[in-house]
Amino acid sequence: DERMNAICINTMSMFDITIQYLDEAINVYLNSSVMRTPKIDDSKVDHLERSIEEECLTLILKERPFSKDLRKVTGVFKLVEDIERLGDHAEDLFWCISNLLKYSQGIRIDSLVEEAKVAMGMVKNAYAAFVKGDVKLAEEICKRDDVVDSLYLKSLKEIPDTKDKYHLNDDFILYSTLLSKYLERVADHASNIAEWVDYIETGYYKDEVII
C-alpha cells in the first residue's frame, strides 16, 4: 500500500536524522578532539513526527486497515513519539556535554562512556529491528535496558569520587549526573521502540495481546 510505504519511509528518515544527531552529540563526549560543532535541528524531527502522525490517522480513517496493517500503523503512531523524544535528548545531551567539558579537564568516567555506547547501540538496534521486523532483536534490546540502569547507578557513585580525586569544580558533578540521566532516558526510549516493534509483529505489547 502506497500510504503505508510512505509512512515507513518517513519513519526511517526520522530515525536516520535522530541517530545522526545523537551520534554527533555523544561523540563530543567520547572524542574530545572533535572540532566541528554539531548542527542539531530538532525542528526537523518534530516536523516529521507531525507528518507521520497525520499520515497514520489518514490511513486509518480512509482505508480502515485490519490485523497486521492496523498493528503497523498504530505501532508507528506510538513509536514516533519515542523517536521525537530521542531528538529532544540529542539537544539536551549536546547542551549538557558542552557545559561538562568546561569542568572535566578532559577526564571521562568509565561508566558514563560505557553507558553512552550501550544506549546508542540500543537506539541503532531499535532502528534495525523496526526495518527488519526482528522480534528477537527487539526483545534483546529491552533486556539491555537493565544494563544501562546498572551503569547509571554505578556512575552516581563514580561521579563524586572522580570529582574528589581530581579536585574538580562542583559543576562537574551537576553536568555529569545530568549526562548519565539523559543517557538512561535514551535507553528507555530505545526500549519503548523495541516494545512497539514487538507489538507490530506479534500483536503483543508488554506481554498482553492488543490486536
Account of the protein in words:
With 211 residues, the chain is mainly α. It has one domain: Methane Monooxygenase Hydroxylase, Chain G, domain 1 (Up-down Bundle), CATH 1.20.58.220. It is built from 6 helices and 2 strands; from the N terminus they run H-H-H-H-H-H-E-E. The chain has a two-stranded antiparallel ribbon. Strand 1 and strand 2 (208-209) form a beta hairpin. Helix 1 packs antiparallel against helix 2, helix 1 runs parallel beside helix 3 (67-100) and helix 4 packs parallel to helix 6 (170-202). 38% of the residues are buried. The model has no long low-confidence stretch (mean pLDDT 95).
Topology:
Blueprint (H helix, E strand, L loop, with lengths): L1 H29 L11 H22 L3 H34 L9 H23 L2 H32 L3 H33 L1 E2 L2 E2 L2
Antiparallel strand pairs: 1-2
Helix pairs in contact: 1-2, 1-3, 1-4, 2-3, 3-6, 4-5, 4-6, 5-6
Instruction: Give start-end ranges of low-pLDDT stretches.
Output: none
Over the alpha carbons, how many angstroms does the gyration radius reach?
19 Å
Order of helices and strands: HHHHHHEE
* DSSP helical segment count: 6
Number of strands: 2
Identify the CATH class.
Mainly Alpha
Shape field: elongated
What profile does the largest beta sheet have?
2 strands, antiparallel
Distance between the termini: 20 Å
The H-level CATH homologous superfamily, spelled out, is Phosphate transport system protein phou homolog 2, domain 2
The number of domains: 1
Mean pLDDT, to the nearest integer, reads 95
- The portion of residues assigned to helices is over 70%
Strand order of the largest sheet: 1-2
CATH architecture: Up-down Bundle
